[in-house]
Fold this sequence. Notes:
Layout: H1 2-28, H2 34-37, H3 44-54, H4 60-72, H5 86-121, H6 126-140, H7 143-157, H8 173-181, H9 184-201, H10 204-211, H11 216-245, H12 248-253, H13 259-268
Amino acid sequence: MRRFLLNRLLQGFATLFIISLVVFTLVRLTGNPLDMLLPVDATPELRARTAAALGLDRSLPMQYAIFLGDLLRGDLGVSIRAGRPVTELVLERLPATLQLVLMAMAIALALAAPLGVIAATRKGTIWDSSARAIALFGQSVPSFWAGIVLISIFSVQLGWLPAGRQEGWTSIILPGLTLGLFGFMLSGVTRLLRSSMLDVMESDYILFARIKGVGPRTIAWRHVLANALIPVVTFIGFYFGIMISGTVVIETVFAWPGLGRLAVEAVQWRDYPVV
């Protein structure tokens, strides 16, 4: 057991090291941040002083070594654009992203649960095919296109909901719908719940409940669903982290002030520490 845990830890550190090296290299291919910070007619002396102040005058291997050393101490650096610690910027934007992800998960689960139950209890019927088609449609439609369509309908034409930004509780409805309905969450939970329920329905205690005369709705919602949720809950916990990293497109479309938009802004401004 100790050897297994040690191997897992070593694999985790190796993965993080490779990811940090790749991100460090790719972000510097976007260009020099001094071109974004300083005016076009900046003197060479000003550029040299600014580069020295930001630590950009050192060699790339030295910059990477300094980055790793600071990271091991829990220091993510200082934003080149904002002049504030990166940790503060991340913690400032994190609540908005968590709100969006939780809203999207609630919407996806509210639709995926009945779709999965219907698909399992009415296997092979038009209801089964329709439930799976709805889930597949949600996974197939690009989220950025769906977001633009929702903005056009509910914000521009109907004027019911705000098109973007965090301005009141209604602002989260459209980005939450887009992230929850048009992604892998809805399709994955629906299909996983369907297959899990089909396996549970073949169990002996379900057959015994039917022999006792328990109604099909009670069997489906109380006995089968409760036991079929175990792999679904595991999937939801795993996909929660994926949804946080997948908010980049949604937050950009709806100008939502979360981590995804912070990352896009950092790339645009070549803010190396934030990226």
